[in-house]
Write a structure and sequence with these properties.
The protein folds into 4 domains: 120 residues, no CATH class; 86 residues; 110 residues, no CATH class; 297 residues, ABC transporter involved in vitamin B12 uptake, BtuC. It is built from 27 helices and 12 strands. 34% of the residues are buried. It is of the alpha+beta class. Helix 7 crosses helix 8, helix 17 runs parallel beside helix 21 and helix 17 runs antiparallel to helix 26.
């Protein structure tokens, strides 16, 4: 019988306190002193029992304890949550949450945990919140773990993954547990597995974790000590300067410190006797060499420490090995981290190339939209229209005005696109009828006239809309970006502009290839005289063509306005690139315009990537390249065929 009692007593003693306890108050009474006067070392026992209890009321207690709202009633030693109510204090039962009414503050003792204890309580709170029914609290807990990256959070985080109901949050927990495992897992195998699992993740925080695993410290020794996880042997003169190497020897107490000029001066001043230092007149010590000689005389007499010569420094450096050692001592873990880091760096380089290509493609689509109207007018009519950028500006302002009356941004854009075409088409026809038609075959006069019109249109826009930039707001479904990974992303607005460019390409090709107007335009482009003899009115075609090119510029203005601010000068930002696109691609050719826009877009982004700090230089280099390109291919990438090509 006594053996059975002893066995029962032993089993009871091995049961955790929290399991034996029936309520939160029971646990607090067991740890009464630790709750009332918690210390950084003693608080862990209380927190372990609270976490093990699984009591739902433990979470609000921890929050109140952290916020210094827990008090003990002196009469019976029970703990309550307190809130001030004037001169009185209102108590709340910790197990039931019942309001017990006011109490005299004189009979209460407040628990006041210090900063270290409150941090420990916060860690325990995170463990509770990881499985809280409220997803916002679970998300907050995960974010707190991500900020602290503490080894103590790995086990509770891993335990909460299986029961996580939200798919996205579960993936976040799994990823975070992998990063913590790479840093703090208990076994070598677990850490290596976690590191290998990170190899496909390009995010900055994963790269930071691998960098932490591969962190190094600079060391020096006669030879590399056995057991050192060597990262790199440093070559003096290449990886580290001789001055830095010798200073490292001094810091490691492996070589005497260098005597500085200040120390030489102090030693000389301290040993002046009768106007002499070591028998040398003070008046002659007016150079560094003279002072160094006097100091050497003092050192020879044993009065000062001898200077270290250059030869001695070189000898000391040659006698030691300088190296970087991994802070992580396990070679297998650092090997796995290096392999994962190399894989990530390769993926990042590929992703950066893809991202640069997407940016270039987006810029090319913007240039294509801006230039396609100019390609039609310049190619068919040979008119250098310096006011083309202002038609882009007119289209953008049309979109802005429409949005002032139509608050639905999607509907306003749908209305603005055809309206911008109609307004700029009409403006283009009016300009052709009043000005351009009188200046055919007079390129200099046409250039000057259209340049004057562009200035007038800019000033008119300033008078109407002011000089302040006006926003052309995109619909909500164009907000944000399409994110492929932490490196590759493209905004939905750029995607929309690219799609619009493709639609315009298909539409213009259809008009030119499948309609009577297109046939007549191509005929006039190839040979105006022959087209006129076949019954085509070149004057009418020129008018419609100029209006069509202007209308397309207006639609391009709406698209560009969604991407950039709408100002009276916005057209000037695209007129140079538009002319370059048309000339490089090939005058009067839609495919040439597409090729020219692609070449200029990719070229500009490539130059900006090589010289990211100077966008003006990128523009300059691009213009120089195009000048050289035209020297070798004056008719552009896609040269015009037919008799007109020989003109």
């Amino acid at each position: 019988m006594s053996r059975l009692l002893s066995l029962a007593l032993a089993l009871w003693l091995t049961v955790p306190v929290a399991v034996a306890a029936q309520s939160l108050q029971d646990i607090l009474q067991i740890h009464q002193e630790e709750v009332l006067k918690p210390g950084r070392r003693s608080v862990g026992v209380v927190l372990d029992d609270l976490v093990a209890s699984g009591l739902p009321q433990a979470l609000p207690f921890l929050e109140a304890w952290r916020d210094r709202e827990i008090v003990k009633r002196d009469s019976d030693g029970l703990f309550f949550r307190a809130s001030e109510d004037g001169d009185m204090v209102t108590l709340m039962d910790l197990d039931t949450g019942e309001n017990l009414g006011p109490a005299n503050a004189a009979g209460l003792t407040e628990s006041r945990p210090n900063g270290g204890v409150r941090r420990a309580i916060g860690d325990a709170l995170v463990q509770f919140q990881l499985s809280d029914p409220d997803i916002e609290k679970r998300l907050t807990a995960v974010q707190a773990i991500a900020r602290s990256m503490d080894a103590s959070q790995l086990a509770p985080l891993s335990a909460s993954i299986e029961g996580e109901s939200d798919r996205d949050l579960k993936a976040t927990k799994t990823r975070l547990a992998g990063m913590l495992g790479a840093l703090f897992a208990d076994t070598q195998e677990a850490r290596i597995a976690a590191i290998e699992a990170l190899a496909g993740d390009l995010s900055v925080d994963v790269r930071a974790v691998l960098s932490t695993v591969l962190s190094t410290s600079s060391s020096v020794a006669p030879t590399v000590p056995d057991g050192t996880n060597l990262a790199q042997t440093l070559d003096v003169g290449t990886d580290i300067s001789a001055v830095e190497a010798y200073q490292q020897l001094v810091d490691a107490d492996l070589a005497p410190a260098l005597i500085t000029k200040a120390a030489i001066r102090e030693a000389l001043v301290a040993n002046i006797q009768g106007g002499l230092v070591a028998g040398i007149p003070v008046a002659t010590l007016d150079t560094d060499e003279a002072r160094a000689g006097a100091y050497d005389a003092l050192a020879a007499g044993g009065i000062a420490a001898p200077r270290v010569t250059d030869a001695q420094q070189a000898e000391a450096i040659a006698a030691h090995t300088f190296f970087l050692a991994y802070d992580e001592t396990d070679v297998a873990i650092t090997d796995a981290a290096r392999a994962a880091q190399r894989a990530i760096e390769t993926s990042v380089a590929v992703s950066q190339g893809i991202d640069l290509g997407l940016d270039a493609l987006s810029l090319a689509s913007i240039y294509f939209l801006a230039a396609i109207g100019l390609a039609i007018t310049f190619g068919v009519m040979g008119v250098i229209n310096m006011a083309h950028g202002e038609f882009i500006m007119m289209g953008a302002y049309t979109g802005f005005v429409v949005q002032q009356f139509v608050p639905d941004y999607t509907l306003s854009i749908i209305i603005a696109l055809p309206l911008a075409f109609a307004i700029t088409f009409g403006a283009g026809v009016l300009m052709e009828r009043l000005v351009i038609r009188h200046l055919y075959h007079r390129p200099l006069e046409t250039l000057l006239a259209t340049f004057g019109i562009s200035i007038a249109l800019q000033q008119l826009a300033k008078n109407i809309f002011g000089t302040q930039a006006r926003p052309l707001t995109s619909p909500e479904w164009l907000d944000g970006a399409l994110v492929f990974n932490d490196v590759v992303a493209i905004s939905y607005i750029r995607i929309a502009i690219f799609v619009l460019a493709l639609i315009f390409l298909a539409l213009i090709l259809f008009v030119l290839k499948r309609t009577r107007l297109g046939l007549e335009v191509r005929a006039v482009t190839q040979n105006p005289g022959m087209a006129a003899s076949m019954g085509i009115n070149p004057d009418r075609i020129n008018m419609l063509t100029f209006g069509l090119g202007s209308g397309i510029a207006g639609i391009a203005g709406v698209a560009i306005g969604l991407y950039a601010k709408v100002t009276s000068e916005m057209g000037a930002d695209y007129i140079v690139q538009s002319f370059m696109t048309v000339v490089v691609g090939g005058v009067g050719n839609v495919w040439g315009t597409l090729a020219g826009a692609s070449l200029i877009g990719f070229l500009q982004k490539g130059i900006e990537w090589l010289n990211p700090s100077n966008t003006l230089a990128a523009q300059t280099y691009m213009i120089l390249f195009i000048i050289l390109f035209i020297q070798f291919r004056p008719k552009g990438i896609v040269a015009l065929k037919g008799r007109a090509a020989a003109d």
